[in-house]
Every structure is written in C-alpha cells, then in structure tokens.
Amino acid sequence: MPEWLGGDPLNGIVITVAFFISLIIGRYISIWRTHIPGKIMAGLDPRIKLLVSFFIIITLTFMKHWYFPILISALCIIISLKFGLTGSYFKKLIFPLVMGIFILAVQSLTYGETKIDSGIIPVYAEGLDYGFLIFSRVLASASVLILLVMTTSQNDVLDSMRWFRAPQTIIDILSFMIRYIRTFSKEGKQMKLAFESRCGSNTGFRSRAHNAASISAVLILRASSKSDGLYRAMVSRGWKPGQEYPVGIASLDKGDIILGVALVAGAIGLAAIDSFA
User: Fold this and answer.
1) What is the DSSP code (8-state) at residue 164?
2) Residues near 11 by Cβ (< 8 Å), separated by ≥ 6?
3) Torsion sign (Cα): 260, 261, 265, 266
4) What is the largest CA-CA distance in the chain?
5) To the nearest whole percent, how much of the chain has pLDDT over 70?
6) Measured distance CA(144)–CA(74) in Å, rounded
7) Residue 115's beta-bridge partner residues?
8) What are the residue ranges of helices labelled H in 198-253?
9) Which stretches of the chain drop beneath a pLDDT of 50?
10) DSSP string covering 143-188
11) CB within 8 A of 259, min separation 6: which ones?
12) Residue 124 belongs to what H/E stretch?
C-alpha cells in the first residue's frame, strides 16, 4: 500500500478503503450484534445501511476538500454518542487514525515544492494539504464503516450482498476472511501466552520482535495447511466456487426505500457541492 503515496491519489484511496474494509470487517464484525443501537439504527434495513455506506465511501473518494469528510466524521461521532457506542467506536477507530496520521506525515515530508520551516523538520505545503485530505478521507470512510459493523450482524451483511447480486466469489472470500482473521487473531494470542508460559523472553524490543516474527511464521504455515484442508473438505461435501445460494429476505419497506433514497441523494449532493466549492 505505501507505494502509491506519491502516485495517483484515486488509486491510492481505493486501495486504502479496500484495506480498511477488509481489516475492520474481519476483526470487529460479529455473528450477532454486540451493541444495541437506537431505534432508528435498529429498525433500518441492513440492505439500506449497506447501500448508503457504500455510496458515502465512494463519494468520499471524489471529494477535493478536507472539511466535508471531517463533517461526516463528526456526524458519525455524534451518532455514536447518541446511541451510547462511544467507547467501542473510538477503540475501533485507533488503527485507521494511526494509519491516517502516518500518511499525513509521509506526504508532508516528501511531496511538494514549497517548504515550510517549522524549526525542527521542514515540511512541504502541498504535501501537508494533500496529506490532510487523504487523512480526512480515511478517517471518514473508517468512521462510516465502523458504525455499519457495530449495528449490523455478519449474516445480515452477507445476505444483503447476496440480495444485491454481488458476485458469489466475493461473498465467499469475505465470509472466509471474517472467520479466519478472527480465528487466527485468537490463535496468535494463545500461542503468545503459551510461549511466555514456557519461559519465553518477553522483555526488550528485540525479544518481542523475535517472538512476533516467530509466531507470525507459524501462523502463516498453519493458515496454508488449514486452508488447503478446508478447501478439500468443502469440495468433498458438494461445495463449488461461485455456487449460488437462495436468498430468503423479505422485500424492502417503503419507508426504508424513501429513507435510503434520501440518504444516497444527500451523499451525492454533498459530493456535488464539494466539486463546485
């Protein structure tokens, strides 16, 4: 992902959004909701939430001014405050926030021609502006996605994707990714505790880095072995790549349709205002 930092911004944003979608969904979404949202969020159809989130993230990639993504991030914070999800919301926002700050720092130090002497490290004005724009886009996209995964179950997300006729291969990959990122995260913690309980050194930066590298290598080997065995087991039970499944979801309510159209129109309108601002 870092190779695009000085290249085409649109490709970089798309890669960043895809990365955060994979990471945040895989790590935080649950089979059933772990939070009880407000009546509006709980009553809103998962298909509408998925569609609106998709359009908001897409429009964010085309915004040219940082204050509109920051406005969306602020609205997400207000929603999390209103529904009592603040603690979990900010906890999940830490990694995207750190990544956004990293991108901002790299851009401000490497991109542009007009130097700003800060007294410690010189930065570039163009890089600072562009880096903060990328930071605001990443923060807003992650905020929208976090609200989605905190108020929608994994099954609802996958069923909604099937209802929208998303390619079955993508749904299968997403389903496996969600399951195995969580599984290997837990297994990695267990291996770390087992290593330390057997007198493994966990003091000092070098020891911790060595432990992390060793555990990661073992996890990669186990993942390769388990994925091959799982694939063979599924094929032997009649599964085929891209196999279609029946979608038994009720039709959309008129109120949800109207609300969804209004929210999508609002996202598109905000992008239009940004383009003419």
Assistant:
1) T
2) 4
3) negative
4) 66
5) 71
6) 11
7) 124
8) 205-236
9) 1-6, 8, 10, 26, 29-40
10) HHHHHHHHHS-HHHHHHHHHHTT--HHHHHHHHHHHHHHHHHHHHH
11) 44, 48
12) strand 123-124
